[in-house]
UniProtKB/TrEMBL annotation:
<dbReference type="GO" id="GO:0033854">
    <property type="term" value="F:glutamate-prephenate aminotransferase activity"/>
</dbReference>
<dbReference type="GO" id="GO:0009095">
    <property type="term" value="P:aromatic amino acid family biosynthetic process, prephenate pathway"/>
</dbReference>
<keyword id="KW-0032">Aminotransferase</keyword>
<dbReference type="GO" id="GO:0033853">
    <property type="term" value="F:aspartate-prephenate aminotransferase activity"/>
</dbReference>
<dbReference type="InterPro" id="IPR015421">
    <property type="entry name" value="PyrdxlP-dep_Trfase_major"/>
</dbReference>
<dbReference type="InterPro" id="IPR004838">
    <property type="entry name" value="NHTrfase_class1_PyrdxlP-BS"/>
</dbReference>
<dbReference type="InterPro" id="IPR004839">
    <property type="entry name" value="Aminotransferase_I/II_large"/>
</dbReference>
<dbReference type="InterPro" id="IPR015424">
    <property type="entry name" value="PyrdxlP-dep_Trfase"/>
</dbReference>
<dbReference type="GO" id="GO:0004069">
    <property type="term" value="F:L-aspartate:2-oxoglutarate aminotransferase activity"/>
</dbReference>
<dbReference type="GO" id="GO:0030170">
    <property type="term" value="F:pyridoxal phosphate binding"/>
</dbReference>
<feature type="region of interest" description="Disordered">
    <location>
        <begin position="1"/>
        <end position="28"/>
    </location>
</feature>
<dbReference type="InterPro" id="IPR015422">
    <property type="entry name" value="PyrdxlP-dep_Trfase_small"/>
</dbReference>
<comment type="similarity">
    <text>Belongs to the class-I pyridoxal-phosphate-dependent aminotransferase family.</text>
</comment>
<keyword id="KW-0663">Pyridoxal phosphate</keyword>
<feature type="domain" description="Aminotransferase class I/classII large">
    <location>
        <begin position="86"/>
        <end position="448"/>
    </location>
</feature>
<keyword id="KW-0808">Transferase</keyword>
<dbReference type="Pfam" id="PF00155">
    <property type="entry name" value="Aminotran_1_2"/>
</dbReference>
Length: 461
């Protein structure tokens, strides 16, 4: 789950209305107002929404959190949709499919059968047993149920893990581009995020030498995400082994392996669980969940697996904050794991569709002058380097100076909502989610091509 937005002209009622309270009078523009005027009013709504007030009574821990960099562009897109502009929303980090029927049925049956009470804090025993079985069968990892903690989404698992293992001043090593929440979670734990940039020419994968050179006695946690949001990169086993060799030399260092996109992977790429590497079980907190592979974002269900003392520590935080995950979602999660190896046919059908879209987009954007792409091997995002266009002047718009202004431009001229790479720690790029139908993506690609035709790459490549 992330703070980016899901938009479509047809589903504007389901659009997050974050900006409404700040500019409701403008956003409630009658449809009778002309299109250009609606667009201008929508833009003005955004300018107003950018005036934010610092509240001095808020805790310094929260004040130190960076506001979401996607906020301004999100507000602009929301305002446009509210004004009736047919924006194609490709910013959302969630599958466009419905939860498979048997999973939903299990949730409905859970209610009918009265599974509507608190569950144990760590999750029901039947679900934790099923997770242990899955980790054994699919990942080669052996855990007992008391080494599993079920939470309200993988996001909660990661936050709790960071809080549980980091002391103030510890360093959390985060390869960039990263999922937006990792650095802020480190800050919430009074730890210091140490961002290690990666390069598109290395498929955005962490170089072992760059990792080794940044380690010191404060280094506490390395966060790996494979398949990656936002790049779609998948860490090959050999590279993970080289990283493990380095981890082995630093006894205080742990690894949080975020494997939430595990099943959304395109052969020949293969997923390797970091904890399965020699000596890494003791050093790894594995996070996974149901949101992405099973199209269950709204059910809020994820889990952490690791050595018991860490899992117990995370459980303590959970017991004093949210308690166990929804009893209904846990029944549904059990049904998801019963779909078979890697989610069975229901998941492979979705993955097949994602792959078809990926193939289309990669081909389509490779043909676009000045754009660099590293073919995603998993997840459902395309992270494209458009920086050769930075510096371009556009009449009536201004200068494209960074990923945010480029996204604003693509929204304004192409009516396609994307996320600036700056939000993920790489300002050269923009992220497109292909959790949308192929015809929608074809239309978006066409609109982006037309908008980009108004620009000339500043640096020809
Ligand atoms: C890399 C990554 N990790 C974790 C999460 C959180 O997932 P959940 O919906 O299970 O909280 C997301 C969601 O966007 C994600 O992209």
């Amino acid at each position: 789950m992330e703070s980016s937005l899901s938009l479509s002209s047809q589903s504007s009622s389901a659009t997050p209305l974050r900006s409404l309270s700040r500019s409701s009078s403008t956003l409630l523009t009658p449809r009778s107002v002309s299109f250009p005027k609606r667009r201008a009013l929508a833009s003005r709504a955004v300018i107003r929404s950018e005036v934010k007030m610092e509240d001095p009574s808020v805790s310094p821990r929260v004040s130190s959190l960076k506001p979401s960099k996607t906020m301004a562009i999100t507000d602009q897109a929301t305002a446009l949709v509210q004004a009736g502009v047919p924006v194609i929303g490709l910013a959302a980090g969630e599958p466009d499919f419905n939860t498979p029927g048997s999973i939903s049925e299990a949730g409905i049956n859970a209610i009918r059968e009265g599974h509507t009470r608190y569950t144990p804090n760590a999750g029901t025993l039947e679900l934790r047993k099923a997770i242990c079985h899955k980790l054994q069968e699919e990942n080669g990892l052996t855990y007992a149920p008391d080494q599993i903690l079920v939470s309200n989404g993988a996001k909660q698992c990661i936050m709790q893990a960071v809080l549980a293992v980091c002391s103030p001043g510890d360093e959390v090593i985060i390869p960039a581009p990263y999922w937006v929440s990792y650095p802020e979670m480190a800050r919430l734990a009074d730890a210091t995020p140490v961002i290690l940039p990666t390069d598109i020419s290395d498929n955005f994968l962490l170089k072992p030498e760059s990792f080794a050179s940044r380690l010191n006695d404060k280094s506490r946690l390395l966060i790996l995400c494979s398949p990656s949001n936002p790049t779609g990169s998948v860490y090959p086993k050999k590279l993970l082994e080289e990283i493990a060799d380095i981890v082995r030399k630093h006894p205080r260092l742990l690894v949080l392996s975020d494997e939430i996109y595990e099943h959304i992977i395109y052969p020949p790429a293969e997923h390797t669980s970091f904890a399965s590497l020699p000596g890494m079980w003791e050093r790894t907190l594995t996070v996974n969940g149901f949101s992405k592979a099973f199209a269950m974002t709204g059910w809020r269900l994820g889990y952490l697996a690791g050595p018991k003392h860490f899992v117990t520590a995370c459980g303590k935080i959970q017991s004093q904050s949210t308690s166990g995950a929804s009893s209904i979602s846990q029944k549904a999660g059990l049904a998801a794991l019963n779909l078979g190896y890697a989610g069975g046919e229901a998941v492979s059908t979705m993955v097949k569709a994602f792959k078809e879209r990926r193939d289309f987009l990669v081909k389509s954007f490779r043909e676009l002058e000045g754009v660099k792409i590293s073919e995603p091997k998993g997840a459902f995002y395309l992270f494209m380097d458009f920086s050769s266009y930075y510096g371009a002047e556009v009449e009536g718009f201004g200068t494209i100076k960074d990923s945010e202004s480029l996204c604003r431009f693509l929204l304004d001229k192409g009516q396609v909502a994307l996320v600036p790479g700056d939000a993920f720690g790489d300002d050269k790029c923009i992220r497109m989610s292909y959790a949308a139908s192929l015809p929608t993506l074809q239309e978006a690609a066409k609109k982006i091509r037309e908008a980009v035709a108004l620009l000339k790459p500043r640096i020809p490549i």
